[in-house]
Design goal:
This protein is mainly β. The protein has helices at about 15-25, 115-120, 135-140, and strands at about 5, 30-35, 35-50, 75-80, 85-95, 100-110, 130, 155-160, 170, 190. The two termini are about 30 Å apart. The structure holds a DNA duplex (13 and 13 nucleotides).
DNA sequence: ACACCGATTATCT
DNA sequence: GATAATCGGTGTA
């Protein structure tokens, strides 16, 4: 595998959050906690399209302490606690005040050879797959304190493989959003065919 | 102050 | 496939 490069975050400022969710498949997520580096290849995502999306925390323009992070500029990290137990990791997209976000739902492990050189000494590998939004944050050590931080600054980085050849990507409806009425059927979820999601 | 609920997961059958 | 566990966020008052 060729050396990954830090992503140019301007693609996160675009308006088409669903397209961005699809493009994030195959990118490399790196998390550093106190001299420990963990990483994974993004394999499953979901788009949340802001004020018009009944499944979004920001539906109807709702602004609370929690959702304030969603209104920041693309590239902001949105972490929230779900069911009082699981931290869920999102990447905010679009311009400031437009609360779009992509939920990262699954990652695959990555070989040390594919880790950027500057992280390799502190890299710790893990096995299996993290096929669930709560599982991957636990694997990578993403916590509530990461909420509202910026990607590519000091804790969470997004890289891409320049010669990555897109695998077949499955498009389907989102998981666990029955409360969203007809919006629960929107095809806003993506996953790589070779990866096995927990829920089909 | 208090009741309800959830962008889930593990553990059953 | 069905269901219990679990607790901070949120709305209502």
């Amino acid at each position: 595998m060729t050396e990954p490069v830090l992503v140019d975050q301007t693609f996160l400022l675009r308006d088409d959050v669903v397209a961005i969710a699809r493009e994030l498949i195959g990118m490399l997520l790196i998390v550093k906690n106190q001299s420990v580096v963990k990483a994974g290849i993004i394999a499953e995502t979901e788009a949340y399209a802001g004020i018009t999306d009944k499944a979004s925390h920001a539906y109807g323009g709702r602004r609370t302490i929690r959702t304030e992070t969603l209104y920041r500029a693309g590239g902001t990290v949105y972490v929230y606690l779900c069911y009082g137990v699981h931290h869920l990791f999102n990447i905010v997209t679009n311009q400031e005040n437009i609360p779009h976000a992509v939920l990262i739902r699954g990652i695959l492990p990555v070989n040390e050879k594919a880790i950027p050189e500057n992280f390799r000494d502190e890299f710790e590998a893990w096995k299996g797959i993290a096929n669930g939004p709560g599982k991957l944050t636990k694997k990578l050590g993403i916590r509530a304190s990461h909420n509202a931080s910026m990607l590519n600054s000091d804790a969470i980085w997004l890289y891409k493989f320049p010669e990555y050849h897109p695998v077949e990507i499955v498009k389907t409806s989102r998981i666990g959003v029955d409360y969203a009425g007809e919006d629960a059927y929107l095809p806003y979820r993506f996953y790589a065919r070779q990866y096995k999601p927990a829920k089909i």
